[in-house]
Design brief:
Mean pLDDT: 75
Order of helices and strands: EEEEHEHHEE
Number of strands: 7
Low-confidence stretches: 69-78, 93-103
Number of helices: 3
Helix content: 25-40%
Length: 103
């Protein structure tokens, strides 16, 4: 069974959006703005559709935030955002408005 995955999506503006994908149990993709407000929610997606979006889009424009990065963020509300920001900064670079992933 595929678990929920959290991604840090760095926008050209420098803001980091949080994307949560869950292929199982109805296939959902949720996007949260830097303030933590849900700005987009797609439901009832097939497992294959979520997997395709993860592989072809999110792996290109975002960095997956794993347990290690989430652990760094425990303690205060801001720390999880800082850990997510640091993860994407270490795995991606911005050049000419394009995000280049090192993953």
């Amino acid at each position: 069974m595929e678990e929920e995955k959290t991604w840090a999506w760095l926008m050209p503006s420098g803001k980091t959006y949080k994307v949560v994908t869950k292929p199982e149990d109805g296939g959902t993709i949720k996007v949260y703005n830097p303030d933590g407000k849900l700005v987009s929610k797609e439901e009832k997606l097939s497992k294959e559709a979520v997997s395709l979006i993860e592989k072809k889009f999110l792996k290109t424009v975002a960095a997956k935030v794993g347990a290690k990065e989430m652990e760094k963020g425990k303690g205060t509300e801001d720390n999880s955002e800082i850990a997510m920001y640091n993860t994407i900064r270490s795995n991606c670079s911005i050049s000419g408005g394009l995000i280049n992933s090192k993953l």
